[in-house]
Design goal:
Helices cover 47% and strands 15% of the residues. The relative contact order is 0.15. β6, α4 and β7 form a beta-alpha-beta unit. It has helices at 28-40, 52-59, 81-87, 111-124, 133-142, 158-165, 169-174, 176-187, 221-234, 239-265, 271-284, and strands at 17-21, 45-50, 66-69, 72-73, 76-77, 93-97, 129-131, 152-154, 190-193, 199-202, 205-208. It starts with 16 loop residues before the first strand and ends with a helix. The protein is of the alpha/beta class. The protein has a single domain, classed as 3-Layer(aba) Sandwich (UDP-N-acetylmuramoyl-L-alanine:D-glutamate ligase). The chain is globular and about 45 Å long.
Length: 285
């Protein structure tokens, strides 16, 4: 899979803007990991849209991003965030939604409604996006089978996909390819089913990723994957191609990190600094 071209005659807007809607009071790290990974894979500009405590936490670690504080409802964002996000959907923008936006124990009752409304805005405005983690869970709880018009990459693990398809994890794992295809057809989008030998499906087409190791089985690893895919989308890759290449780079980053730190000792926060080395290795493959 070819990496996006990097023409010499370029500027930060050549490589797109990721608007990352992520984080909550309990999950601030998810906002950092998804934002920094989009930058590490080559996005020209990343804006983190999050509640003020998350913005303050991440800004102290990541001076490379831009920050958009959103109205807060308890531990996470409120419906008043909707017009603010919509106003920032300028040409060349892609979005990522869901990394850590929920909360431990409970979340505001209207969060599924807010997530569904954001997705509907993205689809209406034809904005490519990545939907992960709590974004997937909120979509499942909303009960809506939204048609995503092949704009998005959904990145569920088996439990999240079981909620979206109203089935069991056991059924998902019995035939991961068919499950990913079924979700792709239901939501009209690319589906990346995480796990050993990650499956990427779009309608009847599919790929199986062969990179990665147990070092990636750590909290926050999926947030890095979301950022990588969003960064590739920002560089004008098609969703299916961005998901296939993103899974490859993510897995290679885990392998390289493990070769230095062991499969036991790799943290999700280690992965972003190995993304450039994974890109170099992918170019040699």
């Amino acid at each position: 899979m070819q990496l996006p071209l990097r023409p010499m005659d370029s500027n930060k807007f050549t490589f797109g803007n990721v608007l990352n809607i992520a984080g909550s009071f309990n999950y601030r790290g998810a906002a950092y990991l998804s934002s920094v990974s989009a930058l590490r894979v080559g996005a020209g500009y990343v804006t983190l849209a999050a509640i003020p405590p998350v913005v303050e936490s991440v800004a102290s670690q990541l001076p490379d991003a831009v920050y958009l504080p959103l109205p807060q409802n308890g531990p996470t964002l409120s419906k008043e965030a909707l017009p603010i996000v919509e106003s920032r959907l300028l040409p060349g923008t892609v979005c990522s939604l869901g990394c850590g936006i929920s909360a431990i124990g409970s979340y505001p009752e209207n969060l599924p409604e807010v997530v569904s409304a954001l997705i509907e805005i993205f689809v209406q405005k034809e904005v490519p996006f990545v939907l992960d983690a709590d974004g997937l869970n909120m979509l499942a709880q909303s009960g809506k089978a939204l048609k995503l018009k092949n704009l998005a990459v959904m990145t569920p693990h088996p439990k999240e996909l079981s909620r979206l398809l109203n089935t069991t994890v056991e059924d998902i794992q019995k035939n991961r390819i068919d499950a990913a295809r079924a979700a792709s057809k239901k939501f009209e989008t690319t589906v990346l089913l995480k796990g050993h030998r990650t499956v990427i499906a779009h309608e009847n087409d599919f790929r199986i990723n062969d990179s990665g190791c147990s070092a990636l089985a750590k909290a926050g690893s999926g947030d890095c994957l979301t950022g990588i895919i969003a960064g590739l989308l920002a560089q004008k890759m098609e969703p299916f191609d961005a998901a296939v290449l993103g899974a490859k780079i993510h897995g290679l980053a885990g392998e390289i990190a493990a070769s230095e730190l062991s499969e036991y000792g790799v943290l999700a926060s280690d992965l972003p600094r190995y993304i450039p080395r994974a890109i170099l290795q992918n170019q040699r493959l």
